[in-house]
C-alpha cells in the first residue's frame, strides 16, 4: 500500500512538468497530445508548470486579441478623455496596450496612423479612431469580435507599451 501511495505521488508530481503539444493533422483536426507531432509538423508546446496570462480569457476574447490587437495612444497631460477610453476598454474586458507618447517619433507614428497627433486615439487591428467617441470605440470593438461586457472576474488591462 505504501509503495502504491509513493507511486501515485511521483506520477502526480511528474505531470506538473509534462509537455503537451497541439497541432493540426492532415484532415485539419486539432490534435492535443503528450508526444511531439510526426514529421516536420509545427506544434505549439506548453509545459505544465507555466501558465500564460491570457489562459484565463474566454476563447472569443483571445481570438479577437490575436486577430485585432488593441492599442490606446495617450499623453501624460491627457487625463479625462484618456481615463474614459481606458474605462470603456476595461468595462468591455478588452486586453489592450497603452502607448504613452513622449518622443517625436511616437507623435510621428500617431500622425501617420490617424492624420495628426490627437489623443486619445485607438487602434484596433488595422482600423483606428482619432479622439474619444464612445460609439466609435464600441463599433470598432464590435467589428473585431470583442465582448460587449467584461467577463466575470476579468482584470483591468492596459499598461504602457514599450
TrEMBL record:
Keywords: Signal. Residues 70-126 form the Glutaredoxin domain. It comes from the Bacteria. Residues 1-18 form the signal peptide. Residues 7-47 form the DUF4124 domain. This is Uncharacterized protein. It comes from Dechloromonas denitrificans. The lineage of its organism: Bacteria, Pseudomonadati, Pseudomonadota, Betaproteobacteria, Rhodocyclales.
Amino acid at each position: 500500500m505504501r509503495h502504491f501511495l509513493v507511486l501515485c505521488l511521483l506520477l502526480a508530481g511528474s505531470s506538473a512538468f509534462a509537455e503537451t503539444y497541439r497541432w493540426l493533422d492532415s484532415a485539419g483536426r486539432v490534435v492535443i497530445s503528450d508526444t511531439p507531432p510526426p514529421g516536420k509538423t509545427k506544434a505549439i508546446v506548453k509545459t505544465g508548470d507555466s501558465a500564460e496570462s491570457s489562459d484565463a480569457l474566454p476563447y472569443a476574447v483571445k481570438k479577437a486579441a490575436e486577430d485585432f490587437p488593441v492599442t490606446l495612444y495617450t499623453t501624460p497631460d491627457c487625463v479625462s478623455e484618456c481615463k474614459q477610453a481606458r474605462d470603456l476598454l476595461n468595462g468591455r474586458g478588452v486586453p489592450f496596450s497603452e502607448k504613452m507618447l513622449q518622443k517625436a517619433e511616437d507623435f510621428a507614428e500617431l500622425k501617420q496612423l490617424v492624420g495628426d497627433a490627437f489623443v486619445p486615439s485607438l487602434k484596433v487591428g488595422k482600423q483606428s479612431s482619432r479622439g474619444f467617441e464612445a460609439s466609435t470605440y464600441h463599433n470598432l470593438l464590435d467589428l473585431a469580435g470583442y465582448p460587449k461586457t467584461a467577463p466575470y472576474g476579468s482584470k483591468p488591462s492596459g499598461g504602457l507599451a514599450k
